[in-house]
Amino acid sequence: MHSSREAIVILFSIPLYTVLIGLEILMSNWQRRNFYTLKSTLQNIYLTLANAGIDLLLRGVFYVSVLTWCYNHHFFKIQNPYLYWICLFFLEDIAFYFEHLVDHYCRLFWAVHVTHHSSEDYNFTTGFRSSVFQPVYRFIYFLPIALMGFEPVDIVFMYSLTQTYGILVHTQYIKKMPKWFEAVFVSPSHHRVHHASNVIYLDKNMGMCLIVWDKLFGTFQEELEIEPVRYGLKKSLNKSDNPLYIIFHEWQAIGKDLKKKTSLLTKMKYLFMPPGWSHDGSSKTTSEMRKELS
After folding, report:
1. Cα–Cα distance, 141 to 169 (Å, whole number)
2. What angle is formed at CA 15 by the lines to CA 177 and CA 116, rounded to 5 degrees?
3. Which of 4, 63, 117, 225 could form a cystine bridge with 59, CB 3.0-4.6 A?
4. What one-character-per-residue DSSP string does 125-136 give?
């Protein structure tokens, strides 16, 4: 389901990304800051192409059929066009926040999302390091929006717009934005925190465009000068050169945990509890690791 407006976003964003990535590569190499590696960049391209392929395959099933059904049964509809688009932006941004929260706090969904966090490099192309199978379930978070009378084609268009912004915050070159900006919007500094493996930064700053949800729901963390960001996962990937391992490594780990001689309830917990949960303390969740620091 591509609209002409979404096509305009794509046509505008591609040259924008090309210019910004090119400049960042040139500056990184010139200043010898090594923000880019060929291996990581190729992985990011591979992952975004895999994600896009699945997204295109599923659009006809989920986005056209399911969202259209929900829209045809909507409870009400905002008539004022200005209010309509403003509300759609806020609804999609908070829907993404809760989707992102679930991706981090439920291991089943973390197994999908972990690919986005697996790079130890951090640059504009990291924004394209997609959670490959996210299109399988992302539409679920849009269903309430369609039931509120927002057209599916507008929902997809707004998602494309907000996702464009979400990619642009993946940079180390912008240290801090003005205070008024960082009080409301997600900044590169905020999102660097989100990609950090430091315990203090784990599972923080979930927002796509607005940082207000994190401040409201207690998941906000400022980037601290005394705590430089370390990118990637707490435990580096063993086979980071294997493209399938990048996508499926957490599923393999879940499989090993499910083979343990435990009760059915415990096995279910290995699927739905936060990443790191274990019945015997052999691994720890983010909250457990934070308690050890305090």
Report:
1. 23
2. 60
3. 63
4. GGGG---TTGGG
What amino acid is encoded at 247 in this protein? I
pLDDT in tens, 163-180: 999 999 999 999 999 999
DSSP class per residue in 205-236: ---SSBSHHHHHHT------TTS---BS-SS-
CA 99 from centre of chain? 9
3-class SS at 263? coil
Place of tokens 């849009």: 142
Query: In this structure, are residues 192 and 223 in contact, taking their beta carbons and an 8 Å threshold?
Result: yes
User: Per the structure block, which two tokens stand in for 155?
Assistant: 């929902």
Report which residue type is found at 59. Answer: R
Contact status, residue 105 vs residue 287, Cβ threshold 8 Å: no
Q: Which of 93, 284, 121, 267 is nearest to 203 (CA)?
A: 284
pLDDT in tens, 227-271: 999 999 988 887 777 889 999 999 999 999 999 999 999 999 999
pTM: 0.92
The first and second tokens of residue 276, run together, are: 């790191």
CA 173 vs CA 62, 205, 220, 236, 244: distances in Å: 38, 19, 21, 24, 31
